[in-house]
Amino acid sequence: MPLRGVKPRVEIYTHDRFEELLSGLCEAFPRRAQGKTSLAYLSEHLGCLDAKTIVVEPKYIDRYYLEDFTAYYVKCFYPYERECVRLHFFSHVFTQEWLIELVRGGPNADIDIEVLQGSYLGFIVVKPLPDSIIGRTCLKYYQEPNSCFPAVRDYKACLFGIPLNVRNTLGFQEQDKVASACATSALWSAFQATGCLWQHSLPSPIEITRAAASNCSVRSRPIPNADGLTLEQMAHAIQSVGLEPYYVYLDKTDVLLYAVYSYVTCKIPVILIFEIRARQGGKQDLSPVGFHAVVVIGYRFSAPKVAESPELDSASIQFRSMQIDMLYVHDDQVGPYAEMPLVIEDATWYLKTSWGSGNAKYADVRAYPHALLIPLYHKIRIPYSMIYEKIVEFDGWLLSLKEISPILSSGRPVWDIQLTEANTYKEDMRKTALASDRKQDLLFDSFPRFLWRASAIVNGQPVMNILFDATDIPSGQFVLEVYAYENELQDFLDIAMRDEVFRRTPMGQGLGVIYSRLRHGDGAV
Predict the structure, then answer these.
(1) Is the preceding peptide bond at 8 cis, omega within 30 degrees of 0?
(2) Quick count: other Cβ atoms within 10 Å of Cβ 501?
(3) Single pTM value for the model
């Protein structure tokens, strides 16, 4: 096999050299490179990161490939290799002689190591397979204006004894249709994030496929995994690592954006399942191609975060999440951080996708979202939909008092709803302009581990927060705190809570408990 005999070396990065390097590492790659979207995408991504140098690290043992290898490839008649090659990318230009001197511990080694670490862009593991050669990939993302990538983590690497870090990224790899299909690859990337959050095991693709198929009905043999996974099987794979699957059916645009924003801001990746439709064979009508799964790790806002609040006569409640116009996904058929812009036209909506862009068979490829599958820690019990309903109720109450409400004097509030952890909330709270005594009370108070935080924003500035207990039961009084940043608004809320009509609503009852406790020191209404 071509990977045998590969030696450590330094290469100057160019698009052509990158393609030649991959071609040399996989004997079947030149025959199948034409139309392979992932190669062109990775090359473009590295170009955006200003990659200058490649270091080839041979004989690399990748845990995830090794587990797939021992479970399947080692039993093949063809002698597939167990060792991979890892390619490291840097934005600093250096030579092989410079790197050798650094490894040997030359006189400027400490300074040069800092230069190497500061210019590190990440790595790609090249698997010794005939086609799906892109293994575990950890590359930095390219930051665009108004884009956010919350569902990321840090990775460590060691190059010839030199410690390196890839900060704020998430592992990606291609499907190989043996150990994994698209759903398995999406689950693998999602578990890379949730494993860091909640310390569960990080299964390999073949372990995910086996867990998904166990105790679930299958149409055919699970391995090789050419047919993909059903939603039931994906949910079972989530349960196999100790998490709970939360299913969201996507019938409207706002449901997609609410759910993605609410959970991804808490660093929880969400798995998006959509139907692909395209024009095929020169036909004008869109026809179904199949279903595909990707993992959402970020989003882009269509306007700056400091946005003017809408007028009071706006027809509906305003949410921060509705300003999202782009999702960033790990798509195993495209690459990491792939863009999926939101398109609304002719009373329909869909996402654009680069899936199949290198295939002349398809034209005008569109993704029609079907469902979200979200891996959650078992203590996150209150779903975003219940918080959404509470805020709609509260917003309507505020609007009914617009003649006397100081919160509505400058415009209608935009609601920013996020899932967060208590420690993260308190870290943010320390940086706010809240009155010192109120801030102290909140910081000294005890909170459940997971919170829903709904912030009312007017003219780009938060004016009040409502906290909900995300670990409570749906029938419980899970409103924890409500407070304003200005004394005038706080006084208004105290008075307005005496409104009998609102106090009889579920939201009013929950807030009444909080206000009573704040005023009297007990939980009596």
Answers:
(1) no
(2) 9
(3) 0.88
